[in-house]
Each structure stands twice: as structure tokens, then as C-alpha cells.
Design a protein that fits this description.
The structure holds two protein chains of two kinds. By secondary structure, chain A is mainly beta. Helices cover 5% and strands 34% of the residues of chain A. Chain B has 14 helices and 16 strands. The radius of gyration of chain B is 24 Å and the shape is globular. The chains are: A mainly beta, B alpha/beta.
Chain lengths: 169, 495
């Protein structure tokens, strides 16, 4: 089998295009691959909804972060990046790493670029990006641009949108 | 064995020595012997090979056969050629894929070929949803089609709703008949439901009145809606039509017709389905279609694919003249009509078992078809596909024509997979595939289709439902991309 350099999909030897992402599979080395599609794939991959409806943090693999949206039973699973911008998609094509648009983020006052989750030496930090309606951690409001350390199970509020964050770092 | 290419059956040139013949026979017989090759058609091929050997190995019979080649028949009318993604493959302990781009061409220059008569049945949906602009545009288009017919073409016009009516009974296209036919077509009005089986049945019955092996026998089904409960019977009729040498094409108007059903119906006869988003495109489409039917060199083409032991045919697509998937579980593959000025191209995907060093045959392709204008039926052309496995393998770039066809096919495949994922509830997966398709299309210079794919990805993510219109536009849009750009000088089609 051969592995697609763009999306890690497995294909038969002799295959010319990846059936999962359409990337060219011949021509050997990675640097000859076109780079155009790489970003989009990454963007989609990191905010993959979890199959389980309720997350407690026990089922996370090392390196994974889960954000569960309170009241929806749905979670967003994050992995493999040092930093994630949380927000909602705007009118432009600019989609944040964690797009809360599908959870009514606009109505609940979440900014397009609202906050950042940063992984720092097995710690997870939360940082408000100067959002219009503020970020709260377990009931107290954060000062903009000042990172604060999170514990797994913490409750975060972006505007009026309630989230819980779990991680295994 | 009339029209049999005995040398082709054994895979040798006509100059072969008796020893060559013996050797080739042993090789070919081993490949298709019922004990080693259980594939469909292998036994018949084995018998043909044995007959060819019996004639060619007997000096007197061979001399008679050679003489008949020189005198009577003007040589093969259909040429079959192929291009492999790799001619040399690595020795591997795991399966590997090899693609073949297969090209069918007439052996005669287009100018020397008379055009065959068309026996056409036009089956038109006149259900309530066709009311207004749709039906008006269709009626105008049919009137123009009638004008463009030649005198020895025959046309029947059938309409259907929850019943079927013959509007124009099949007749030759004299000026008086044309005037009459146009007057009758202008009286068509919309009312009722959509029962495709009724229209199809009536259309085939009318077509049968002038059914002839020396004509292009074709039924065109035009609909804007879904039929319910009679899909299976329609499929059965399509199979019967194909057995009678009738091809069927579908034309879907708007976004409510069943593309999967119409695709299957048409491809069961070697035909294809087209999608028109707006009714004002119907006139041009019908003109092009009828011009294409009249420019046929070969009709009722069928390709028997005989894989060697352990080899599997995974997929088959027609790239040109009408792009679309072909059902690989059917044997032989019905591949439709060969235009006199263009080639018919197919893309085949084979899976090879683990192989050791040395030459390795993959499959034999046996093409059958009727060459109408030469009044020759059951023409056969043979092509053997083979690779050589090397222990010290060095990858070379695959042929550009094959890469081009495959890159377009991979775009078509991405959207097919996106719809499958969406249908199975995997909205995230479908969204990802559509936005990937968008970027692929963008980098291929297809800005309009790319925008459509990206917009549909966003819509799907937001609303979790598909737009039928966008789905059909993207499906038939990416399918049309497979068609290679016409070579220079093909503008001669206007007669």
C-alpha cells in the first residue's frame, strides 16, 4: 500500500490519485506535491465532531482536547496543534480553527475570533482575544490577552455560549 | 467464423510461421482454459482460440483464409489501442493497480464513410410540472429537430403522464410529413403524473416498427420528474432494448428527476444521461444529439474484458464521446456508439495479484460492434494487455493522456463519495470532500464548478441538507470535464 502525503489515506500501489483528497500520488517526494489543498484539509480535520454524545474526558487519547457545547450533547475534538482560535465563521471565507457557528454562536454573541486555546508543555491555556462580549472561566471574566491555565472539566463561557473543556495532555 | 480476426485471436501478425502459431496457441489456450480462468466469457474465448488454431495450423485452410483476407473483406474496420499507467511494474508481495486507457477508432478516413439512417423515438414527459416554459421550450426544440432530420431518418414522438400517447407515429422524414409532425407536436399540453414505464414501453413499441440492423436505433427519454414503483420494470425494458440493439439516452430537466435511475437506465444500453438546468438549453442539446447519432461509424459496441487469472477489473468509465461510469459486473460492457470523426475512450482499472518477476498478461479485450455504413456486423478487434514485473523497478512518469483522464476522474469520484457520505449521515465527511473538490477544481482552472462545490460544502455544514440542484450541477459538471478537448480540425462535424 502507499500513503497519501496530503491526507494519510492508504491506496494500492500503482494508484495515481488519492481517492480521499484527489492529491497526486506519483512523483515520489513530498516537496513536489501541490500545496494548495493542505490548509483546507487541516482546517476540516481538527474540528471533527465526536461520535459520543457526552464527553467526560475519560475517553480522550493522549494529546486530545474536547470542547463540549452545553445543552447540545455535541463535542468538538481537537488534536495535533499547538494553538486553536475559537470563534465563528464570518461572511468572508475566514473560518476559525474551532468554528462554533453551527451551535448558534452568532446569536449568543461569540466574536469571529473570540479566544485562543494554547497547548504549552502539557498545560492548556485560555486567552481572550479582546472579544466584544467577553470570556468567562468558571464564572469569572478574563482580562483580554491574558492567558490563564485550565483544568480538565472547566466551564468556559463565550458571550452567552456555555462550553466545557476536557483534555488529556 | 465470419469476420473473425484469426491472427488477432492468437495475438500474432499475419506473417507468423507455423512454429509461432503453435507457440501462440499454447500461450493463449492456457490463459483462457476453463480450468485456469473461471471469468465470464473465458470459455467462449478458449473455443474461438481453438478454432483459430485449427484453421491456421492447417496449411490448406490457412491459405484459403489468407486469400479471403486479401480479396473479400477490406480488413478490420475497428481499431483498438491501449495505453497503460505502467508497462513495467515492481515485483510485489501485495496487490497493485494498473490503469488502461483504451481507444477505439474507425480505420477509415471520415470523409469516405456514408452516414447511417436514424430510427429515433422521442419520449416526452408531459406531466403537470412541465407546464409553461419547460414544455414550450421542448416543443420548439422538437420542431427544430424535425427540421434537421434527413429524408431516410424516421421519427416517432410519444408523450406520457400517467398514460402514454403517440403524437407522431414513426415515419420517414419527407417535407410533407415534417410539416404534419410539427403541427402535431405543437398540440402537446401538460397534465397528469409521471409514469416513465408507460412512456418507455410505448416508445420502444413505435421504435420497433422500423427497427433495422443497418440503422441507428435510439430512444430518447426527456423528463423532469420522478417515477414511482416502476423503476425495476423500466430496467428490465432497458435490458430488452439493449438486446434488440436499441440504445437509450436520458435527458433530465430541472432538479427533481432521479439522476441515479436515469443513469442506470441509459448505461444498461450503452447510452448516457444529460442534465439541463434551464429549458432554453434543450434545443441545442437535441440538435447536437441527433447530429451525433447520424455521425455514427460503429453502433452497438460491446467490449468483452477477459482478465487473466487472479486479475480483477475494479472500475470502468467511458471518457469519450459521452463520459460516465460503466457497470463492471455486466459482461460484456455495452459501450455504445463510435463517432466517425472522434474516438471512443474508456478508462479501465485492474487490480493485479502479488506477482513475481517476468512478463505478466493482465487481460484480453475483445471488441464487438456493427459497422453500419459498411454493412458489416459482428466486427471484432482484439487487444492484449500485459506488463513486465521487474525486481529492480524504477518508477517513470505515467503517460500524460492517462494522467489527464485520471485527474478528472478523481474529481468526479470525490463528488460521488461526498454524496454517498451525505446520504449515510456523515455530514462532516461530505463537507470535507466537497471543499477538497473545490480546491482541486480551482487549481484545475474550473472556477465556476469550484465555487459551486465550496458553496455547497458551506451550505451542507450549516443546514445539514443537500441541494438537489447543486448536486446535479456538480455531478454532471465534473463528469463533462472528463471529455478530452476536441483535437484541432474536428470542427468539420457540420455537414
Amino acid at each position: 500500500m502507499i500513503t497519501c502525503l496530503a491526507c494519510r489515506n492508504q491506496e494500492y500501489e500503482g494508484e495515481l490519485f488519492c481517492s480521499n483528497c484527489g492529491a497526486r500520488l506519483w512523483g515520489a517526494s513530498g516537496e513536489t506535491l501541490p500545496t494548495i489543498t493542505f490548509d483546507t484539509n487541516r482546517l476540516r480535520e481538527i474540528s471533527k465532531p465526536l461520535a459520543t454524545t457526552a464527553t467526560t474526558g475519560h475517553d480522550l487519547k493522549p494529546g486530545q482536547i474536547a470542547i463540549s457545547v452545553t445543552g447540545t450533547g455535541q463535542s468538538v475534538l481537537l488534536e495535533s496543534r499547538p494553538e486553536y482560535v475559537i470563534g465563528r465563521e464570518g461572511q468572508e471565507q475566514d473560518v476559525p480553527d474551532v468554528n462554533l457557528g453551527p451551535f448558534g454562536a452568532r446569536e449568543k454573541g461569540v466574536s469571529r475570533k473570540h479566544a485562543v486555546l494554547r497547548v504549552d508543555r502539557r498545560q492548556l491555556l485560555l486567552l481572550d482575544l479582546g472579544s466584544s462580549n467577553g470570556t468567562w472561566l468558571n464564572g469569572s471574566q478574563l482580562a483580554p490577552q491574558e492567558p490563564i491555565r485550565l483544568e480538565s472539566g472547566d466551564e468556559i463561557r463565550l458571550g452567552k455560549l456555555l462550553l466545557k473543556v476536557f483534555f488529556n495532555l | 467464423m465470419p469476420n473473425a480476426d484469426l491472427y488477432g485471436l492468437l495475438g500474432i501478425p499475419a506473417s507468423a510461421t507455423p512454429d509461432d502459431i503453435k507457440l501462440a496457441y499454447r500461450g493463449a489456450a492456457r490463459r483462457f482454459h476453463p480450468d485456469t480462468n473461471g471469468g465470464p466469457g473465458a470459455t467462449e474465448e478458449f473455443k474461438l482460440i481453438a478454432e483459430a488454431h485449427a484453421i491456421l495450423s492447417d496449411p490448406a485452410q490457412r491459405a484459403r483464409y489468407d486469400a479471403s483476407l486479401k480479396q473479400g473483406s477490406p480488413g478490420p474496420a475497428l481499431a483498438l489501442r491501449s495505453l497503460l499507467s505502467r508497462e513495467k511494474v515492481p515485483v510485489l508481495a501485495e496487490p497493485q493497480v494498473v490503469y488502461a486507457l483504451v481507444d477505439v477508432r474507425p480505420t477509415l478516413p471520415a470523409g469516405e464513410i456514408p452516414t447511417p439512417p436514424i430510427n429515433l423515438s422521442l419520449v416526452i414527459d408531459r406531466s403537470t410540472s412541465m407546464q409553461g416554459d419547460r414544455l414550450d421550450q421542448v416543443k420548439t426544440a422538437v420542431a427544430q429537430l424535425i427540421d434537421s432530420l434527413r429524408e431516410n431518418d424516421t421519427l416517432a414522438v410519444i408523450t406520457f403522464s400517467d398514460k402514454a400517447e403517440v403524437i407522431v407515429s414513426p415515419q420517414r422524414s419527407t417535407p410533407e410529413q415534417k410539416t404534419m409532425a410539427k403541427a402535431k407536436v405543437s398540440t402537446i399540453h401538460a397534465a397528469g403524473g409521471t409514469e416513465i414505464l408507460r412512456g418507455l414501453l410505448r416508445g420502444l413499441m413505435e421504435l420497433h416498427q422500423h427497427l433495422s440492423p443497418s440503422s441507428v436505433n435510439h430512444l430518447m427519454l426527456l423528463t423532469d420528474g420522478q417515477t414511482y414503483g416502476d423503476e425495476g420494470d423500466c430496467q428490465l425494458l432497458a435490458a430488452l432494448a439493449a438486446a434488440d440493439g436499441v440504445s437509450l439516452s436520458g435527458l433530465g430537466l430541472g432538479d427533481e428527476w432521479n439522476d441515479k435511475f436515469l443513469d442506470e437506465l441509459a448505461s444498461a444500453t450503452g447510452g448516457s444521461t444529460a442534465f439541463l438546468a434551464a429549458p432554453d438549453q434543450v434545443a441545442k442539446f437535441l440538435q447536437d444529439k441527433v447530429r451525433g447519432l447520424g455521425a455514427a461509424f460503429g453502433e452497438r459496441l460491446a467490449l468483452r474484458i477477459l482478465p487473466d487469472q487472479g486479475v480483477k477489473l475494479l472500475q470502468a468509465y467511458r471518457v469519450a464521446p459521452e463520459p460516465g461510469p460503466l457497470a463492471v459486473d455486466e459482461s460484456p460492457l455495452l459501450i455504445g456508439s463510435l463517432p466517425k470523426e472522434r474516438s471512443l475512450s474508456l478508462l479501465l482499472k485492474f487490480l493485479l495479484p502479488p506477482i513475481s518477476e517476468g512478463p505478466r498478461p493482465i487481460a484480453r479485450l475483445a471488441l464487438y460492434g456493427d459497422v453500419l455504413s459498411l454493412n458489416r456486423r459482428g466486427e471484432r478487434a482484439t487487444e492484449d494487455l500485459a506488463v513486465t514485473a521487474l525486481a529492480s523497478f524504477q518508477a517513470v512518469a505515467p503517460p500524460p493522456a492517462l494522467v489527464d483522464a485520471l485527474s478528472k476522474l478523481s474529481q468526479y469520484t470525490l463528488q460521488e463519495r461526498a454524496w454517498q457520505k451525505a446520504a449515510s449521515g456523515d455530514i462532516g465527511g461530505a463537507t470535507r470532500l466537497l471543499s477538497t473538490l473545490g480546491t482541486r477544481l480551482l487549481s484545475a482552472g474550473q472556477a465556476d464548478l469550484a465555487k459551486m462545490a465550496i458553496a455547497e460544502a458551506k451550505r451542507l455544514e450549516r443546514t445539514h441538507t443537500l441541494s438537489e440542484d447543486a448536486k446535479k450541477r456538480i455531478k454532471y459538471g465534473t463528469r463533462a470535464l472528463m471529455l478530452p478537448a476536441p483535437a484541432s480540425g474536428s470542427g468539420r462535424l457540420h455537414s
